[in-house]
Amino acid sequence: MAFLGTLTSFLLLFTHIIHNARAASIHPLCGSNITIDNVQPVAKSVTDLTALFHGLELPEGACIFNPALVQVSGPLYCLFGRIYEASEPGKRCAPGRMDRPPFLDGWRGKSTNILAILWLRQDPNRRRLQTKLMGHTYINASNHEDGRLFKDSRGRIYVYLALPIGVYPKRAVINTVNRVFIQCNRSSSHCAVSLGYPRILSFLGSDNAMDKNWVPWNGSEYMSFSHYGTFGPHSVFNWGSYDEPVLHIDFDSVAEDSLFPNFNKHYGHLLQLSGGSPVVLEPGGKSYLGVGHFKAHPGCFHPEAMPAWVDKSRFGHMVGQLGTNCAHLQQSSNETTRSEVLRVAFNFLHEGKEGIHYPLDYGFFFYRFNAAAPHNITHISHGVIPYTWRNASDHQGIVFPTGLERLGSDTYIIAYGDEDQASKLMTISARRVEALLWPLPKMEQSLDTYTVCAIGCEGEEGGRCSYE
Ligand SMILES: *[C@@H]1O[C@H](CO)[C@@H](O)[C@H](O)[C@H]1NC(C)=O
Ligand SMILES: *[C@@H]1O[C@H](CO)[C@@H](O)[C@H](O)[C@H]1NC(C)=O
Ligand SMILES: *[C@@H]1O[C@H](CO)[C@@H](O)[C@H](O)[C@H]1NC(C)=O
Ligand SMILES: *[C@@H]1O[C@H](CO)[C@@H](O)[C@H](O)[C@H]1NC(C)=O
Ligand SMILES: *[C@@H]1O[C@H](CO)[C@@H](O)[C@H](O)[C@H]1NC(C)=O
Ligand SMILES: *[C@@H]1O[C@H](CO)[C@@H](O)[C@H](O)[C@H]1NC(C)=O
Ligand SMILES: *[C@@H]1O[C@H](CO)[C@@H](O)[C@H](O)[C@H]1NC(C)=O
């Protein structure tokens, strides 16, 4: 066993080196040292769902992304996705292409949504999920943006939405929950799915009109508030009931810790943590697990995107290779640059030309908090992005986690939007997730080595996930 393990790590290291020599501009694969017990951090599979929606009444060239996901029962799952039809035909999404992100169309097209029922099963012969579409509703009368699906304490399915109103700069969101109604007919294998009326989640304690990405706790009426920029302190709402949510002037609990303020002091806007998927109760019932999203200055990883204030002579050796952490920008920054860089990052060019990389890099991190009040966050992982095999000039850096579910008892499904163009499901074993979770004090001791790397697929050549 030990020998096999060593051989596997050697092979992984070997493919890693070859791979890096061939295409140095791909985000590097994660090494086992981002886990606490030297487990290779790999996913089981990645499955692209987007083709399931082709041929429906969706607009030609629709991008279908940021899928929320909740299990209905058995192999049936409910999905809420976002749809975008670019204003110009040449900028619309197309099967097999990943170079048509809506931001390149300036989001001037039409945004709608889809609710769908899927049948999901691990394909016994292949490293991916078998999928079938059991029914859907195209929600085209309004734009609901990103949803998060979850069940309340009575097992009823809801979608949490942050409905946009107005146009920038007079723009705000209204946070709501809507029931989701599902009726399946066994003999025809078809499900009807519809959205109920919205219930407003009122929180008067924030002066940010754009507060969204709140985190529903599956199986309850609780949600976590996403503090923009800092993530912590972990601040919690108990809405009481989603039929009549309680008006909130303040949080029901707040748990302070030192990691999040220190992370923020260290990186400022260079690297920010925020809410992503809903959270789910872990076995034993003592803690919840969630997948958050981070956003980072692209200069953390793409050397060509380093801002002008970086002393490049000190970091010249990095040029030509994608990095895995942000220590060099952190060390070169002062308080002003640390807090301004997200705006500066909007000038990201690839090799001096207008590239297709979004001006920020997005990714996932796992975290855990206590089920008991005051719900302190106890663990957090390094940053991971799904392995794409795409290089800096043809990836856009936008992967956005919108769902966390189970497949059987030992596997998690992470539902995410890929580059605002595709809807994907990554599966990963609970054991590998466990290994990624660091106790907060331990992570706090090594803020400088906070890593962002690509997580490949178990047993696949070079870690490449064969979802295509
Ligand atoms: C990156 O992608 C571009 C466009 O597909 C291609 O021309 C280039 O050769 C790729 N570079 C590497 C290092 O793989
Ligand atoms: C993992 O190892 C690499 C290479 O030795 C090192 O640069 C990096 O900081 C390590 N990462 C962590 C999280 O310890
Ligand atoms: C919405 O889609 C339906 C078909 O599902 C179509 O009849 C209707 O015209 C569409 N409405 C808008 C506003 O696009
Ligand atoms: C979500 O909550 C429901 C209770 O409403 C529970 O039955 C289900 O197992 C939970 N899902 C997960 C992934 O924990
Ligand atoms: C269920 O499907 C069958 C077969 O298509 C159909 O005959 C039946 O009317 C459906 N039942 C309901 C309640 O819609
Ligand atoms: C949990 O949060 C409470 C409230 O902020 C705080 O007093 C306590 O020190 C925290 N416990 C740990 C272990 O961080
Ligand atoms: C921070 O760094 C920037 C870029 O080097 C510089 O222009 C600015 O004056 C610095 N600000 C402070 C307060 O030192």
From TrEMBL:
It comes from the Eukaryota. The keyword Signal applies. Keywords: Signal. The keyword Signal applies. Residues 1-23 form the signal peptide. This is Uncharacterized protein.
